[in-house]
# Entry
Amino acid sequence: MSLANAIHDAVAVAQSVTDDGDLQVTFTHEAATSTLDRQGRPTYATGVSRTGLLYEKPAKVLDSLGNERVSRSQLVVLGKTVFDEKDKVTLPGSVVRPIIRAEAMVDSSDNPYVTVLYFG
# Structure
C-alpha cells in the first residue's frame, strides 16, 4: 500500500466518523463556470450537497493575490472534491460568504484529500 492510499483511507475514516457523529454541517457547492450571464455576472453549475467541518473563528490568511485578510469562518472538506475561490458555497441558514482562499492538501497525483475554505 502506498502512502497516498494510506492517507486517502485515513481521510475516508475521518469523514465517516465525523459525519456519523453529526459533527459535520451540510452545505451546497456550486462550481463556477467559465461563462457570464447577460449582466456580466458569473454563472454556476448545478449545486451539489456536501458535508464539512465548519469553524466560526477569525483567522488571518493570505488571499490569492498575497494580501493578508481576516477569515470569519473556515470549512474543512474531507475527500477528493476540488474547489476554487470563484465557486459559490451556501452554508447552513442560507448564508453565502465569499471564499477568500481554497487551500487543498493533495497527493502526488494532485488529488485533494483535505480542503480548507476560508470565508470573508
Notes: The chain is about 15% helix and 50% strand. Residues 35 and 88 are 14 Å apart (CA to CA). The radius of gyration is 15 Å. The first helix runs from residue 3 to 20.
